[in-house]
Amino acid sequence: MALPFVWLLLFFVVPFIIVLKISFSDIDLAIPPYKPLLEWAAKHTLTIKLNFDNYAFLFTDSLYLHAFVNSVKVAFISTVFCLALGYPMAYGIARARANVRNVLLLLVILPFWTSLLLRVYAWIGLMKANGVINNVLLSLGLIHEPLTMLYTPFAMYVGIVYSYLPFLILPLYSNLEKMDWQLLEAAQDLGCRPWQAFYKITLPLSRNGILAGSMLVFIPATGEFVIPALLGGPNALMIGRVLWDEFFANRAWPVASAVAILMLILLVPFMMWYQSVQARESAGAR
Amino acid sequence: MTSAGGAVKAQPWKDPTARPYVQVDRVCKSFGDFKAVDDVSLKIYKGEIFCLLGASGCGKTTLLRMLGGFETPTSGKIFIDGEDMTGVPPYERPVNMMFQSYALFPHMTVEQNVAFGLKQDRVPKAEIRERVEAMLDLVKLGGFAKRKPQQLSGGQRQRVALARSLVKRPKLLLLDEPLGALDKKLREHTQFELISIQDTLGVTFVVVTHDQEEAMTLASRIGVMNHGEIVQAGTPSEIYEFPSSKFVADFVGSVNMFEGKLIEDEPEFVRIGSEELGGTIYVSHGISAPPEAVVWAAVRPEKIFMSTAAPEGSDNVVRGAVQDIAYLGDLSIYIVKLPTGKVVRVTQPNTSRHAEAIGWDQQVYLSWDASSPVVVTR
Predict the structure, then answer these.
(1) B266 contacts B273 by C-beta, under 8 angstroms
(2) Would you kindly state where each structural domain of chain B is located, as residue ranges?
(3) Residues linked to residue B224 through DSSP beta bridges, in sequence order
(4) Which residues lie below 8 Å from residue A207, measured CB to CB, with a gap of 6+?
(5) Nearest residue to B323 (alpha-carbon basis) of B341, B309, B337
(6) What residues have CB less than 8 Å from B50, skipping those under 6 apart?
(7) What are phi and psi of B319, to 5 degrees?
(8) ipTM of the complex
(9) What is the pLDDT along chain A (286 residues), one digit of tens a residue?
(10) Which contacts (CB < 8 Å, 24+ apart) does range B194-198 have?
(11) Does domain B12-246 bear CATH number 3.40.50.300?
(12) Which CATH number, 1.10.3470.10, 3.40.50.300, 3.40.50.1100, 2.40.50.140, labels domain B254-376?
């Protein structure tokens, strides 16, 4: 009983407090590169100095706002693509025969057995100027010069959608798998064409699965760093990238921490939404 | 009220000129190597309650689903109201179905469930409201319109399913084990309600059930199915009193079956020698069977008389010892063991509160009318 709480305390609450603390401190040329919050100003006087400059700074430079908006946009578009691809896949798996279903599920999970980084590098190999895709298209005579795919938004979306698709498929599948397919027959019996039955019965009943899967894509995709950095090229301005640059290039830990805290505040409502959807789903309510 | 399917007062199936409302014409359905429905032909008439009766896996549900359009016959044709239904999808058939699981939409209220089919047909809103309300009143769910299916009891869900399938005023309603999920008391009550609703609306019902009592109560006619075939179709009393085979005799009600050989075969009567019985069975009607054929005489338990004194005559009489008695209130079941080892089931109504004391291990005589046995050859 206590163990999960200890775990959360050690690996979530404590790091969060440290980041929060740094976000309110002054930058310093030291190791670590920030000044402590608490200081003995005089004898018997402990001063605490909270510096809101780091937050204020984020609103003065439009770069940060840009990065935030762009992150949300990229995450949103990726979620939509994941949904468009993942829903038919989850549906197909849920309606497949039991033995086929297990194979399909395995195929969905299989990529997790290799590192994300390796899989993203594999995409570089596929999409680069003399990569697999271009070579195949050239040899088929479909194109006459290589397409520029790598280091474009296209490549970044491919990477994100590819990486996060399983996170959408799995919760959606587990929702659809519980579906009573006789309801669709009942709907058809009452005059629905198959697509109408899907729209009026399957879709509303899989709402929780759609929401849960979408959140599982949207939330981490907002903070995504590796994929935009490797596939998206220099113009892919996302908040994760900014965070990296502030920490490692600028060594501006307080500003970086403020960015991290703001991102968290941005995502908390989505996480809470996800939680309530999950609670509803496990309560079996529709 | 022997056949409670009261809507059909006339017997259109006896009229060769009557036009059947549903005609199943040599329909087969195979799933891989398995023949679920094997060469079934049926005619069902307007206003009937036709019960497909059989054990699970006999193909009755598959046949029903083919009527609904959820399965396609491998061969043969189905006509509804004279129209060939081949290739007509469920949503274009003049048929509604009540599913065994009820298949109520969990994300809709009772009202929305019932209104679903009407909305689909773009019936005007005011009319939908009116018809849904009237239908909910008919199934006595007037106060439950705003509830979700999960908030209802099994019996109430069954009514919602019934209302939903009837509100579109189908000409033909298919019911898959409509009362299967209800407890016994509620089931009996609902059976009669179903009949009265069917009578009020004049819908033709095709009911699938494995419960012979349910079939007997509901049906105007019963089709007994076994291994994908209709082995006998007829009114409940025909099925019960004149079963055409051992299977039907045994499946519908309980029966004592005596195997024997024809020793006298006259147009007016037959005499059967049965080693199993340890005596002869005299039947007061002729049968068509080759001489010396092995036949079975089926005698219903309630048609056997039991006495302590020897009855007159030597045919249709046998001695045995009471082995077991089950007192059921309205009647008692006696299990009597014959000297041959054959066990015979006898039921006697408890007409008096102090029934004559036939006790365990008592020697009794069993006898029956010459008209009681049904002789079957297969």
Answers:
(1) no
(2) 12-246, 254-376
(3) B53, B232
(4) A286
(5) B337
(6) B42, B44, B204, B205, B206, B207, B219, B220, B221, B222, B223
(7) -100, 145
(8) 0.82
(9) 688 889 888 998 999 999 999 999 988 888 888 888 888 877 888 888 888 888 998 889 888 999 999 999 999 999 999 999 999 999 999 999 999 999 999 999 998 899 999 999 999 999 998 899 999 999 998 888 888 889 999 999 999 999 999 999 999 999 999 999 999 999 999 999 999 999 999 999 999 999 999 999 999 999 898 899 899 877 778 898 888 888 888 888 999 999 999 999 989 998 898 888 888 877 765 5
(10) B194/B162, B194/B218, B195/B4, B195/B5, B195/B6, B195/B7, B195/B49, B197/B138, B197/B139, B197/B162, B197/B166, B198/B5, B198/B7, B198/B49
(11) yes
(12) 2.40.50.140
Overall average pLDDT of the B29-48 stretch: 93
Query: Apex CA A162: angle with CA A210 and CA A232, to 5°?
Result: 120
Contact B105 A180 (CB under 8 A): no
How crowded is residue A43: how many other Cβ atoms within 10 Å of its Cβ?
5
Neighbouring residues of A76: CB distance < 8 A, sequence distance ≥ 6: A218
Which token pair is B187? 């089931």
d(CA B359, CA B345): 15
Q: Report long-range pairs for A61-66 (Cβ below 8 Å, ≥24 apart).
A: A63/A237, A63/A242, A64/A239, A64/A242, A64/A259, A66/A237
- Taking an 8 Å Cβ-Cβ cutoff, which residues of chain B contact chain A? 68, 70, 89-91, 95-97, 99, 101, 103-107, 116-117, 120-121, 164-165, 168
Report which residue type is found at B40: V
At B325, list the tokens. 């008695």
Please say whether the beta carbons of A215 and B142 come within 8 A: no
Q: Are A187 and A201 in contact (CB under 8 A)?
A: yes
The span from the CA of A72 to the CA of A68, in Å, is 6
| Residue A97 amino acid letter | R
Residue B289 in this model has a pLDDT that exceeds 80: no
Q: Tokens for B318?
A: 């046998």
CA distances from A11 to A16, A18, A32 (A): 9, 11, 20
* Chain A stretch 175-234, residues whose beta carbon is closer than 8 A to a beta carbon of chain B: 180, 182-183, 185-193, 196, 200-201, 204-205
To test the contact with chain A by mutation, choose from B85, B96, B113, B120 the residue with the greatest count of A C-beta atoms within 10 A, namely B120
3-state secondary structure of B78: strand
E strands present in chain B: 22-31, 34-44, 49-53, 75-80, 83-84, 95-98, 172-176, 204-209, 221-226, 229-234, 256-265, 270-274, 279-283, 294-299, 305-307, 317-327, 331-337, 343-349, 363-367, 374-376
State the DSSP string of B87-125: T--GGGSSEEEE-TT----TTS-HHHHHHHHHHHTT--H
Is-same-fold flag (B12-246; B254-376)?
Answer: no
Q: Count how many domains chain A has.
A: 1
The domain that contains A154 carries what CATH number? 1.10.3720.10
The first and second tokens of residue A36, run together, are 């402590």
